[in-house]
Amino acid sequence: MSDVDVLHTPLSVGPVELSHRVAVSPMCMYASVDGHATDFHLVHLGRFALGGAALTMVEATAVEPQGRISHHDLGLWSDDHIPGLQRIAGFLAAHGSVPGIQLSHAGRRASVREPWRAGAPLDETDAAAGLPPWPVEGPSALPAGPGWPIPAAMDIGDIRRSIERWRDAAARAVAAGFRVIELHGAHGYLLHEFLSPIANQRTDAYGGTTEGRMRYPLEVVAAVREAIGPETALAYRLSAVDGAVGGLDLDDTAAFAARLQDAGVDLIDVSSGGISTDRSLDTRIRRGFAFHADFSHRIRESVDIPVATVGLVVEPEQAQELVTRADADLVLLGRSVLDDPNWPHHARVALGDDEFAEWDVRYGHALAPRARLIGKLAATGESPMSRFE
Ligand SMILES: Cc1cc2nc3c(=O)[nH]c(=O)nc-3n(C[C@H](O)[C@H](O)[C@H](O)COP(=O)(O)O)c2cc1C
Protein backbone atom coordinates (compact mmCIF):
# COMPACT_ATOMS: atom_id res chain seq x y z
CA MET A 1 0.00 0.00 0.00
CA SER A 2 1.16 3.51 -0.81
CA ASP A 3 1.64 6.02 2.04
CA VAL A 4 0.96 8.97 -0.23
CA ASP A 5 -2.63 9.89 -0.96
CA VAL A 6 -2.12 10.18 -4.71
CA LEU A 7 -5.86 9.84 -5.29
CA HIS A 8 -6.26 13.33 -3.88
CA THR A 9 -3.65 15.07 -5.98
CA PRO A 10 -4.80 17.37 -8.83
CA LEU A 11 -4.92 16.22 -12.44
CA SER A 12 -4.74 18.36 -15.56
CA VAL A 13 -6.98 17.14 -18.34
CA GLY A 14 -5.93 19.36 -21.23
CA PRO A 15 -6.96 22.87 -20.22
CA VAL A 16 -9.09 21.69 -17.29
CA GLU A 17 -7.79 21.15 -13.78
CA LEU A 18 -9.42 18.46 -11.64
CA SER A 19 -8.90 18.86 -7.89
CA HIS A 20 -8.45 15.10 -7.39
CA ARG A 21 -8.83 11.80 -9.25
CA VAL A 22 -12.29 10.46 -8.42
CA ALA A 23 -14.98 11.23 -10.99
CA VAL A 24 -18.49 10.15 -11.88
CA SER A 25 -18.90 7.95 -14.95
CA PRO A 26 -21.72 8.72 -17.41
CA MET A 27 -24.90 6.82 -16.58
CA CYS A 28 -28.15 6.89 -18.57
CA MET A 29 -31.11 7.49 -16.30
CA TYR A 30 -33.92 7.21 -18.88
CA ALA A 31 -35.54 10.22 -17.25
CA SER A 32 -35.63 12.70 -20.15
CA VAL A 33 -38.64 14.03 -22.00
CA ASP A 34 -37.98 14.69 -25.72
CA GLY A 35 -34.27 14.88 -24.92
CA HIS A 36 -34.75 17.51 -22.21
CA ALA A 37 -33.12 17.32 -18.79
CA THR A 38 -35.60 17.09 -15.94
CA ASP A 39 -35.59 17.80 -12.19
CA PHE A 40 -34.48 14.20 -11.76
CA HIS A 41 -31.22 14.93 -13.55
CA LEU A 42 -30.53 18.03 -11.49
CA VAL A 43 -31.05 16.23 -8.19
CA HIS A 44 -29.30 13.03 -9.29
CA LEU A 45 -26.21 14.75 -10.73
CA GLY A 46 -26.16 17.59 -8.25
CA ARG A 47 -25.85 15.13 -5.42
CA PHE A 48 -22.55 13.87 -6.86
CA ALA A 49 -21.13 17.40 -6.69
CA LEU A 50 -22.20 17.65 -3.04
CA GLY A 51 -20.63 14.22 -2.54
CA GLY A 52 -17.21 15.49 -3.59
CA ALA A 53 -16.66 14.16 -7.15
CA ALA A 54 -13.88 16.07 -8.93
CA LEU A 55 -15.72 15.70 -12.25
CA THR A 56 -19.31 14.71 -12.88
CA MET A 57 -20.02 13.38 -16.35
CA VAL A 58 -23.60 13.69 -17.58
CA GLU A 59 -25.00 10.55 -19.22
CA ALA A 60 -24.91 9.67 -22.94
CA THR A 61 -26.58 12.65 -24.63
CA ALA A 62 -27.74 12.14 -28.19
CA VAL A 63 -26.40 14.39 -30.93
CA GLU A 64 -29.45 13.67 -33.08
CA PRO A 65 -32.86 12.12 -32.35
CA GLN A 66 -32.21 8.81 -34.16
CA GLY A 67 -28.98 8.48 -32.16
CA ARG A 68 -30.84 8.04 -28.89
CA ILE A 69 -30.61 4.68 -27.20
CA SER A 70 -34.18 4.97 -25.91
CA HIS A 71 -37.04 7.45 -26.08
CA HIS A 72 -35.94 8.74 -22.66
CA ASP A 73 -32.34 9.74 -23.42
CA LEU A 74 -30.96 13.22 -23.02
CA GLY A 75 -30.31 15.12 -26.24
CA LEU A 76 -28.51 18.18 -27.53
CA TRP A 77 -29.79 18.25 -31.09
CA SER A 78 -31.48 21.62 -30.60
CA ASP A 79 -30.80 24.89 -28.80
CA ASP A 80 -33.94 24.23 -26.76
CA HIS A 81 -32.01 21.53 -24.89
CA ILE A 82 -29.41 23.98 -23.62
CA PRO A 83 -31.21 25.66 -20.67
CA GLY A 84 -31.98 22.43 -18.77
CA LEU A 85 -28.37 21.27 -19.05
CA GLN A 86 -27.04 24.75 -18.31
CA ARG A 87 -28.81 24.65 -14.95
CA ILE A 88 -27.11 21.33 -14.17
CA ALA A 89 -23.66 22.43 -15.33
CA GLY A 90 -24.04 25.61 -13.28
CA PHE A 91 -24.95 23.68 -10.15
CA LEU A 92 -22.06 21.24 -10.56
CA ALA A 93 -19.52 24.03 -11.09
CA ALA A 94 -20.89 26.07 -8.17
CA HIS A 95 -20.43 23.07 -5.90
CA GLY A 96 -16.89 22.22 -6.89
CA SER A 97 -17.36 19.47 -9.47
CA VAL A 98 -16.16 20.09 -13.01
CA PRO A 99 -19.18 19.65 -15.31
CA GLY A 100 -18.66 17.09 -18.06
CA ILE A 101 -21.05 15.57 -20.58
CA GLN A 102 -20.89 12.52 -22.80
CA LEU A 103 -22.10 13.01 -26.38
CA SER A 104 -23.43 9.95 -28.08
CA HIS A 105 -24.97 8.36 -31.14
CA ALA A 106 -26.23 4.82 -30.61
CA GLY A 107 -26.03 3.83 -34.30
CA ARG A 108 -27.40 0.33 -34.91
CA ARG A 109 -28.01 -0.12 -31.18
CA ALA A 110 -30.52 2.75 -31.03
CA SER A 111 -34.28 2.36 -30.53
CA VAL A 112 -34.34 0.07 -27.50
CA ARG A 113 -36.20 -0.30 -24.19
CA GLU A 114 -34.81 0.64 -20.80
CA PRO A 115 -32.42 -1.92 -19.24
CA TRP A 116 -35.00 -2.90 -16.65
CA ARG A 117 -37.11 -4.00 -19.65
CA ALA A 118 -34.13 -6.04 -20.91
CA GLY A 119 -32.82 -3.27 -23.19
CA ALA A 120 -34.41 -5.10 -26.13
CA PRO A 121 -35.21 -3.42 -29.46
CA LEU A 122 -38.52 -1.55 -29.48
CA ASP A 123 -41.32 -3.30 -31.37
CA GLU A 124 -45.02 -2.96 -32.12
CA THR A 125 -46.00 -3.52 -28.47
CA ASP A 126 -44.01 -0.41 -27.59
CA ALA A 127 -45.56 1.40 -30.57
CA ALA A 128 -49.02 0.56 -29.17
CA ALA A 129 -47.92 2.18 -25.92
CA GLY A 130 -46.90 5.35 -27.77
CA LEU A 131 -43.18 4.55 -27.95
CA PRO A 132 -42.62 3.42 -31.55
CA PRO A 133 -39.30 2.05 -32.83
CA TRP A 134 -37.44 4.24 -35.30
CA PRO A 135 -35.14 3.36 -38.24
CA VAL A 136 -31.54 2.87 -37.16
CA GLU A 137 -28.35 3.47 -39.10
CA GLY A 138 -24.77 2.27 -39.00
CA PRO A 139 -21.66 1.84 -41.11
CA SER A 140 -22.97 -1.35 -42.77
CA ALA A 141 -26.35 -3.05 -43.07
CA LEU A 142 -25.47 -5.53 -40.33
CA PRO A 143 -27.63 -5.92 -37.22
CA ALA A 144 -26.12 -5.86 -33.71
CA GLY A 145 -27.24 -9.46 -33.30
CA PRO A 146 -30.10 -11.88 -33.89
CA GLY A 147 -33.47 -10.15 -33.57
CA TRP A 148 -32.00 -6.66 -33.85
CA PRO A 149 -33.03 -4.23 -36.60
CA ILE A 150 -30.96 -4.05 -39.77
CA PRO A 151 -29.44 -0.58 -39.92
CA ALA A 152 -29.38 1.54 -43.05
CA ALA A 153 -25.76 1.73 -44.21
CA MET A 154 -24.83 5.42 -44.01
CA ASP A 155 -23.83 7.00 -47.31
CA ILE A 156 -21.33 9.85 -47.61
CA GLY A 157 -24.11 12.41 -47.23
CA ASP A 158 -25.29 10.72 -44.00
CA ILE A 159 -21.72 10.70 -42.70
CA ARG A 160 -21.24 14.41 -43.44
CA ARG A 161 -24.59 15.26 -41.86
CA SER A 162 -23.82 13.26 -38.73
CA ILE A 163 -20.41 14.90 -38.29
CA GLU A 164 -22.19 18.27 -38.40
CA ARG A 165 -24.55 17.03 -35.67
CA TRP A 166 -21.64 16.01 -33.43
CA ARG A 167 -20.06 19.39 -33.98
CA ASP A 168 -23.28 21.34 -33.27
CA ALA A 169 -24.09 19.31 -30.16
CA ALA A 170 -20.55 19.86 -28.84
CA ALA A 171 -20.84 23.61 -29.39
CA ARG A 172 -24.15 23.57 -27.49
CA ALA A 173 -22.55 21.62 -24.65
CA VAL A 174 -19.91 24.32 -24.32
CA ALA A 175 -22.63 26.99 -24.44
CA ALA A 176 -24.37 25.13 -21.60
CA GLY A 177 -21.23 25.44 -19.47
CA PHE A 178 -19.63 22.00 -19.74
CA ARG A 179 -15.82 21.96 -19.40
CA VAL A 180 -15.22 18.34 -20.42
CA ILE A 181 -16.86 16.91 -23.53
CA GLU A 182 -16.62 13.14 -23.81
CA LEU A 183 -17.36 11.31 -27.06
CA HIS A 184 -18.99 7.91 -26.56
CA GLY A 185 -16.78 5.71 -28.70
CA ALA A 186 -17.48 2.48 -26.79
CA HIS A 187 -20.20 -0.11 -26.14
CA GLY A 188 -21.11 -0.81 -29.76
CA TYR A 189 -22.48 2.63 -30.53
CA LEU A 190 -21.90 4.51 -33.78
CA LEU A 191 -18.25 5.61 -33.32
CA HIS A 192 -17.30 2.14 -32.14
CA GLU A 193 -19.27 0.56 -35.00
CA PHE A 194 -17.18 2.42 -37.56
CA LEU A 195 -13.96 1.33 -35.82
CA SER A 196 -14.77 -2.36 -35.44
CA PRO A 197 -14.54 -4.82 -38.35
CA ILE A 198 -17.51 -6.65 -36.84
CA ALA A 199 -19.89 -3.78 -37.60
CA ASN A 200 -17.99 -2.02 -40.40
CA GLN A 201 -17.68 -3.98 -43.62
CA ARG A 202 -17.64 -0.99 -45.93
CA THR A 203 -15.48 -0.96 -49.00
CA ASP A 204 -15.22 2.83 -49.38
CA ALA A 205 -12.85 5.31 -47.65
CA TYR A 206 -14.71 4.81 -44.31
CA GLY A 207 -13.98 1.09 -44.09
CA GLY A 208 -11.89 -1.73 -45.49
CA THR A 209 -8.55 -1.03 -43.86
CA THR A 210 -7.76 -0.11 -40.26
CA GLU A 211 -7.11 3.40 -41.50
CA GLY A 212 -10.49 3.48 -43.23
CA ARG A 213 -12.32 2.25 -40.12
CA MET A 214 -10.65 4.96 -38.03
CA ARG A 215 -11.65 7.70 -40.46
CA TYR A 216 -15.16 8.47 -39.17
CA PRO A 217 -14.25 8.62 -35.45
CA LEU A 218 -11.17 10.73 -36.21
CA GLU A 219 -13.21 13.10 -38.37
CA VAL A 220 -15.74 13.45 -35.55
CA VAL A 221 -12.92 14.15 -33.10
CA ALA A 222 -11.45 16.80 -35.41
CA ALA A 223 -14.82 18.51 -35.89
CA VAL A 224 -15.61 18.49 -32.17
CA ARG A 225 -12.11 19.59 -31.20
CA GLU A 226 -12.49 22.62 -33.42
CA ALA A 227 -16.00 23.40 -32.18
CA ILE A 228 -15.22 23.33 -28.46
CA GLY A 229 -12.14 25.58 -28.58
CA PRO A 230 -8.97 25.46 -26.51
CA GLU A 231 -10.59 26.07 -23.09
CA THR A 232 -12.63 22.85 -23.08
CA ALA A 233 -11.23 19.37 -22.55
CA LEU A 234 -12.04 16.55 -24.98
CA ALA A 235 -12.37 13.00 -23.66
CA TYR A 236 -12.99 9.81 -25.63
CA ARG A 237 -14.48 6.63 -24.18
CA LEU A 238 -13.41 3.55 -26.09
CA SER A 239 -13.95 -0.15 -25.76
CA ALA A 240 -10.42 -1.48 -25.22
CA VAL A 241 -11.48 -4.83 -26.61
CA ASP A 242 -14.57 -5.91 -28.51
CA GLY A 243 -14.73 -9.17 -26.57
CA ALA A 244 -16.10 -10.83 -29.69
CA VAL A 245 -14.69 -13.25 -32.26
CA GLY A 246 -13.15 -11.25 -35.12
CA GLY A 247 -13.25 -8.00 -33.18
CA LEU A 248 -10.77 -5.39 -32.01
CA ASP A 249 -8.09 -6.34 -29.51
CA LEU A 250 -5.96 -4.30 -27.14
CA ASP A 251 -3.16 -3.71 -29.67
CA ASP A 252 -5.70 -2.25 -32.10
CA THR A 253 -7.16 0.13 -29.55
CA ALA A 254 -3.79 1.12 -28.06
CA ALA A 255 -2.77 2.22 -31.57
CA PHE A 256 -6.11 4.02 -31.99
CA ALA A 257 -5.63 5.79 -28.64
CA ALA A 258 -2.35 7.24 -29.91
CA ARG A 259 -4.21 8.56 -32.97
CA LEU A 260 -6.84 10.10 -30.71
CA GLN A 261 -4.11 11.89 -28.82
CA ASP A 262 -2.66 13.23 -32.09
CA ALA A 263 -6.14 14.43 -33.05
CA GLY A 264 -6.41 16.54 -29.90
CA VAL A 265 -8.09 14.26 -27.36
CA ASP A 266 -7.12 15.15 -23.76
CA LEU A 267 -8.32 12.04 -21.90
CA ILE A 268 -8.89 8.41 -22.87
CA ASP A 269 -11.66 6.72 -20.87
CA VAL A 270 -11.23 2.96 -21.05
CA SER A 271 -14.24 0.66 -21.08
CA SER A 272 -14.93 -2.51 -23.11
CA GLY A 273 -17.35 -4.58 -25.13
CA GLY A 274 -20.78 -3.99 -26.59
CA ILE A 275 -20.11 -4.39 -30.30
CA SER A 276 -22.34 -7.43 -30.72
CA THR A 277 -25.34 -8.91 -28.96
CA ASP A 278 -24.68 -12.27 -30.66
CA ARG A 279 -23.76 -14.58 -27.78
CA SER A 280 -22.14 -17.09 -30.12
CA LEU A 281 -19.41 -14.48 -30.84
CA ASP A 282 -18.85 -13.55 -27.18
CA THR A 283 -15.30 -14.16 -25.92
CA ARG A 284 -16.17 -13.06 -22.36
CA ILE A 285 -14.53 -10.13 -20.68
CA ARG A 286 -14.12 -11.17 -17.06
CA ARG A 287 -15.99 -8.92 -14.67
CA GLY A 288 -13.84 -8.80 -11.52
CA PHE A 289 -12.92 -5.86 -9.29
CA ALA A 290 -11.45 -3.00 -11.36
CA PHE A 291 -12.06 -5.10 -14.45
CA HIS A 292 -10.67 -2.56 -16.92
CA ALA A 293 -7.44 -1.85 -15.03
CA ASP A 294 -5.21 -4.08 -17.20
CA PHE A 295 -6.65 -2.45 -20.31
CA SER A 296 -6.21 1.11 -19.05
CA HIS A 297 -2.68 0.26 -17.87
CA ARG A 298 -1.72 -0.89 -21.36
CA ILE A 299 -3.38 2.05 -23.12
CA ARG A 300 -1.68 4.43 -20.71
CA GLU A 301 1.65 3.11 -21.98
CA SER A 302 0.81 4.09 -25.56
CA VAL A 303 -0.21 7.72 -24.93
CA ASP A 304 1.04 10.81 -23.07
CA ILE A 305 -2.38 12.04 -22.00
CA PRO A 306 -4.32 11.00 -18.90
CA VAL A 307 -6.22 7.71 -18.98
CA ALA A 308 -9.29 6.85 -16.92
CA THR A 309 -10.35 3.44 -15.72
CA VAL A 310 -13.83 2.32 -14.67
CA GLY A 311 -15.51 -0.88 -13.54
CA LEU A 312 -16.29 -2.26 -10.09
CA VAL A 313 -14.13 0.11 -8.14
CA VAL A 314 -15.71 -0.08 -4.71
CA GLU A 315 -13.04 0.74 -2.08
CA PRO A 316 -11.00 3.94 -1.58
CA GLU A 317 -7.77 1.96 -1.15
CA GLN A 318 -8.49 0.14 -4.40
CA ALA A 319 -8.93 3.46 -6.25
CA GLN A 320 -5.74 4.80 -4.73
CA GLU A 321 -3.72 1.74 -5.76
CA LEU A 322 -5.02 2.02 -9.33
CA VAL A 323 -3.47 5.47 -9.55
CA THR A 324 -0.33 4.57 -7.58
CA ARG A 325 0.43 1.58 -9.79
CA ALA A 326 -0.11 3.50 -13.03
CA ASP A 327 -3.21 1.59 -14.04
CA ALA A 328 -4.92 4.94 -14.53
CA ASP A 329 -4.66 8.67 -13.86
CA LEU A 330 -8.33 9.05 -13.07
CA VAL A 331 -10.83 6.66 -11.50
CA LEU A 332 -14.43 6.78 -12.68
CA LEU A 333 -17.25 5.45 -10.55
CA GLY A 334 -20.66 4.35 -11.77
CA ARG A 335 -22.67 2.14 -9.46
CA SER A 336 -20.52 2.97 -6.42
CA VAL A 337 -21.82 6.55 -6.44
CA LEU A 338 -25.38 5.42 -7.09
CA ASP A 339 -24.96 3.39 -3.91
CA ASP A 340 -23.26 6.21 -2.01
CA PRO A 341 -23.12 9.68 -3.61
CA ASN A 342 -20.77 10.72 -0.79
CA TRP A 343 -18.23 8.05 -1.86
CA PRO A 344 -15.57 10.65 -2.81
CA HIS A 345 -15.88 12.43 0.56
CA HIS A 346 -15.84 9.13 2.44
CA ALA A 347 -12.72 8.11 0.49
CA ARG A 348 -10.87 11.14 1.86
CA VAL A 349 -11.65 10.05 5.41
CA ALA A 350 -10.67 6.47 4.69
CA LEU A 351 -7.35 7.64 3.27
CA GLY A 352 -6.65 9.86 6.25
CA ASP A 353 -7.52 13.38 5.11
CA ASP A 354 -9.30 16.00 7.20
CA GLU A 355 -12.76 14.64 7.66
CA PHE A 356 -15.04 17.54 6.71
CA ALA A 357 -12.83 20.22 5.17
CA GLU A 358 -13.99 19.40 1.64
CA TRP A 359 -17.69 19.05 2.36
CA ASP A 360 -20.13 21.80 1.48
CA VAL A 361 -20.12 23.99 4.59
CA ARG A 362 -23.88 23.50 4.95
CA TYR A 363 -23.20 19.83 5.66
CA GLY A 364 -19.70 20.09 7.13
CA HIS A 365 -20.57 22.50 9.94
CA ALA A 366 -23.20 20.05 11.16
CA LEU A 367 -21.33 16.82 10.61
CA ALA A 368 -18.02 17.83 12.24
CA PRO A 369 -19.44 18.34 15.78
CA ARG A 370 -21.56 15.22 15.34
CA ALA A 371 -18.43 13.19 14.56
CA ARG A 372 -16.65 14.70 17.60
CA LEU A 373 -19.58 13.86 19.88
CA ILE A 374 -19.77 10.29 18.60
CA GLY A 375 -16.01 9.99 19.21
CA LYS A 376 -16.35 11.25 22.80
CA LEU A 377 -19.20 8.86 23.54
CA ALA A 378 -17.25 5.96 22.10
CA ALA A 379 -14.33 6.87 24.39
CA THR A 380 -16.64 6.53 27.40
CA GLY A 381 -17.74 3.10 26.18
CA GLU A 382 -21.20 4.26 25.10
CA SER A 383 -22.50 2.85 21.84
CA PRO A 384 -25.69 3.59 19.86
CA MET A 385 -27.16 0.36 21.29
CA SER A 386 -26.11 0.95 24.95
CA ARG A 387 -29.56 2.12 26.06
CA PHE A 388 -31.08 -1.14 24.85
CA GLU A 389 -28.71 -3.41 26.69
C1 LIG B 1 -27.38 2.78 -14.88
C2 LIG B 1 -26.16 2.81 -15.78
C3 LIG B 1 -26.17 3.61 -16.92
C4 LIG B 1 -25.03 3.69 -17.73
N1 LIG B 1 -25.02 4.57 -18.78
C5 LIG B 1 -23.86 4.78 -19.46
C6 LIG B 1 -23.74 5.85 -20.38
O1 LIG B 1 -24.64 6.68 -20.55
N2 LIG B 1 -22.57 5.96 -21.05
C7 LIG B 1 -21.51 5.10 -20.84
O2 LIG B 1 -20.47 5.23 -21.48
N3 LIG B 1 -21.59 4.12 -19.92
C8 LIG B 1 -22.73 3.97 -19.21
N4 LIG B 1 -22.77 3.03 -18.22
C9 LIG B 1 -21.53 2.32 -17.84
C10 LIG B 1 -20.86 3.08 -16.67
O3 LIG B 1 -20.46 4.38 -17.04
C11 LIG B 1 -19.65 2.30 -16.13
O4 LIG B 1 -18.67 2.26 -17.13
C12 LIG B 1 -20.01 0.88 -15.70
O5 LIG B 1 -21.20 0.89 -14.92
C13 LIG B 1 -18.89 0.22 -14.90
O6 LIG B 1 -18.57 0.99 -13.77
P1 LIG B 1 -19.15 0.67 -12.28
O7 LIG B 1 -18.79 -0.74 -11.95
O8 LIG B 1 -18.46 1.69 -11.40
O9 LIG B 1 -20.64 0.86 -12.33
C14 LIG B 1 -23.90 2.92 -17.42
C15 LIG B 1 -23.92 2.06 -16.31
C16 LIG B 1 -25.03 2.05 -15.47
C17 LIG B 1 -24.99 1.19 -14.23
UniProtKB/TrEMBL annotation:
Cofactor(s), names only, from the UniProt record: FMN
Q: Which superkingdom heads the taxonomic lineage of this protein's source?
A: Bacteria
Q: Does the keyword Hydrolase apply?
A: no
Please name the SUPFAM superfamilies in this protein's record: FMN-linked oxidoreductases
**Domain NADH:flavin oxidoreductase/NADH oxidase N-terminal, first and last residues per copy:** 7-348
Q: Could you tell me the keywords of this UniProt record?
A: Flavoprotein, FMN, NADP, Oxidoreductase
Q: What is this protein called?
A: NADH:flavin oxidoreductase/NADH oxidase
Which species is this record about?
A: Microbacterium candidum
